[in-house]
Amino acid sequence: MKIFEKNNILIARFSSIGDVVLTTPLLRAIKEQLPHAKITYITTKPMACLLDANPFIDNLFVFEKSDPKEKINILKNEILRANNSQKYSVAIDLQNNLRSKLLLNGLYKKKISCNKYRLYKLSLVHLKLLIRTPKHVVDRYFETLAPLNVVNKNYNTEIFLQNSDAPNRNSDKLVIGIAHGAQHFTKQWIAEHFAELMKLISSHFDAQFYLFGNKNETENASQITNLFSQNVHNFTGKLPLSETIQKISECDYFISNDTGLMHIAAALQKPVVAIFGSTVPEFGFSPYGVPHKIAQVSLNCRPCTHIGRRNCPKTHFNCMRNITPQQVFSDFQDLISDVSKDK
User: Domains, the chain, ranges and CATH?
Assistant: First the structure.
């Protein structure tokens, strides 16, 4: 295997939240195993808060996907100037699409790109067949680093907070984060189920709940709080991502759909109950490096997608409807028991 020069490394991953968070073990690994290497990272502006306090990144460059070609060319010149106007030793393309190819063009001597395992995903969605042993996305990213001789030594995902102070806790109650939304409908557990789950937890634990989501998920949050509002702090649509990260750092546990906030919670070392509907953990996006439980049901129509859908193709939506609040509560109890044993 040809070994690449490793002095200046350019990494590209533009979206989405979870995918960017899952690149963070590579940053620590590169710096520990190639201590003389400098890392320059390119991402989109909305993702910057996931990386801007990371001590393993020497230069962080951001852009908007709507930026015109002229602005992208200016950015590329700035990226080159950060490397003394020289091409980078190697570019690591973890996005591996047309946009990343165009942006990286002319910036590197050698390039390595991640394998997106498209055939594997298509076989799982359309044939329900596992044609190879499932691998977590983090491990697939590390496969990309093989030419650099950088390996995964059980590194975790991580997010470094801008505010390094201890989380602000105003109560001794158990703080449970709830990520009730998702970009795609088929990845969203039922609002009524979330409310019933919170009732179950409150009947057994002295708990308060933080609801998280974006501005498109405020109606969903309202449905939940109309059914259960006891000790609920609804942050849905009220915080930028940077402040959402800070609030998640205050949580003791996290209950989430298969979404980016789940990966943020894991990167902040919060034990997670992850709820999977139309997608499955075999795609490689389960919570990484933390105690976790997966809530799901077995159906012959799962998975129907690897990213989510606007509606259920079978119309019954049983992948989420059939995950009961009692099932998730049982997973939550088991998670607490597991964490207590490890202490």
Answer: 8-148 (3.40.50.2000), 174-342 (3.40.50.2000)
